[in-house]
Amino acid sequence: MEAAAGGGCGSGPPLLLSEGEQQCYSELFARCAGAAGGGPVSGPPEAGRAVPGAVTAAAGTVADLFRASQLPAETLHQITELCGAKRVGYFGPTQFYIALKLIAAAQSGLPVRIESIKCELPLPRFMMSKTDAEIRFGNPAELHGPKAQIPYSVTEKNTFKRMDDEDKQETQSPTMSPLASPPSSPPHYQRVPLSHGYSKLRSSTEQMHPAPYEARQPLVQPEGPSSGAPGAKPPRHQASLIRSFSVEREPHDNSSNYPEEPWRITEEQREYYINQFRSLQPDPSSFISGSVAKNFFTKSKLSIPELSYIWELSDADCDGALTLPEFCAAFHLIVARKNGYPLPEGLPPTLQPEYLQAAFPKPKRECTLFDSYSESMPANQQPRDLNRMEKLSIKDMADFPVPAQDVTSDDKQEQNKARLALKSTVDEALPKDMSEDPATKSGLLPPPPALPPRPCPSQSEQASEAEIHPQLNRAPSQAADSSPTKKDTPYSQPPSKPIRRKFRPENSATENQEPSSTVGGPASAATGKPHTAVQKQSSKQKKAIQTAIRKNKEANAVLARLNSELQQQLKEVHQERIALENQLEQLRPVTVL
Amino acid sequence: MAVCVAVIAKENYPLYIRSSPTENELKFHYMVHTSLDVVDEKISAMGKALVDQRELYLGLLYPTEDHKVYGYVTNSKVKFVMVVDSSNTALRDNEIRSMFRKLHSSYTDVMCNPFYNPGDRIQSRAFDSMVTSMMVQVC
Hints:
The complex is a heterodimer. Chain A is an all-alpha fold.
């Protein structure tokens, strides 16, 4: 095989490739060649190239691939020259292989010379590559390093992420948008939870895409073999849909089911948008103010002019606020733009507010159910609430656990509990709480859900909070659950701040109640009320109360600590704000043409 | 039909300026710039009078041989200046007023966009298209 590569075309120096290299290069070549509409697609890569001249890689795709290697343009030019493509005018297999070898050499720091390729080299690395294989060969650490820094990127499996990245990058280059501002550099890209959801719905109909997107086709094909991974991801897709607002690309991504109509919102997407809307604005029938929406959409990392244009398109009544259909339209446009679609000249008919309102009446019905709640996930995620709630209690969770405050009818009891706990007295027992007014405060977010899920009621009285929390966490330990938490947290940070404080006492209070109630069964009803307990004068009750008091004290201490932390954060934020305002002031008068 | 439309910020720097491409753009920029003096004069002529009493439409600022310059000021001291061809005699005051009204309403739409920072150049496509509609159509 190596000989074939070397001897296939005598224009370059003999090329010695290792097995891995051979496979890798031939895959890459197949992709590039496959992308080229003109050249005949090469046969199985391992087959000898009988007619090297007939098999060429499209210059465009090759250029993209080379750019993906993140070498400077100078180097790439040199490589292209050296490998002989310039001379012969096309990228035959030999040229391509030589070029890849040179890229590997350059990435390893060797000078770009023909002699370099004679050495043993690692495989070339492409930050944005069309092939999964490439990325896998490449340096995963590179990819994930930047990812880890992204605050609200969700923890994902490696291949999941990688596929996202590479595809995202990949699309960016071929798809030129009429707007001048391309998205930020590859390392800043975030994941594509959304698109994964779409991939479920999307079939291979994307093949029918118009010309600008045909470059994605080679992606789709390689995605086919690797789709074992995507195929297994539907459950995560569901979760990912609800994840943080990081809209990266994905092989099958598109914003719609129908390739002809990228502006059509699917049911799934609609759900997601509505959830996001609710995270910003609890009442689905009212508006999101401009500043809130601006902060939210800025997280998508699109450029300001693009966002400005998207706003222009979607805010039909130009009132500076977004209603639910307007918000969905805007969100959809952002998703589309992130996925590489150029923005339309005018708002497509399927994104008009009237159309959206008419087309999706169902979510409105849902909305009314959850009206009183500050944030709601679909009801089927109740089991996740517990997990999320538990995550709250984890101190090191920098994110704010707003999502945990989900609203289900079961959680109303927690609202009551929260209120009571805030008074720092362990009062009514749980059953009583439940019976009390159900849907009290929309503001108060529901604390941990019902007791039954609690795993270890038998913990000792001295069980500290920390102990209980891990126990609780173990109970519903699903990786997917953490994602909804994390996903919503970035958005909900401001509103969740005060709420978080409430959670702590609730958690502790509930846990306090937990052991107490389980320990003092018959006396559970009276456990909360110190007066009642005193009156009843059962030794068990006394003990329970003392435990509860101790727990409350702990909770208080924790809260105080939390308070000071938050105060510190507040101070820092204030300082930042002042600094920014100063900068703004300085820059303001200079904003002349 | 205007030949040149300009939006000037309160601090007298341009937020948006667009001329009909046939003629020397520099000439129009210069005319707009000089008209700012006239605008300031008219605004300050009110002097002690309340801002509310001052009408937004300033009317003809000054005529030149070939062109007439009209002005309009908003309550936030953002100025709209429009240059029209003198030979276009059919253009009435009312029409000019309505053009300014349209400009003003498009400008407020631009303002409503949270991504627009006051003081930035106006890059809204809707605004562009509206201005195009009132500019002289050059075939």
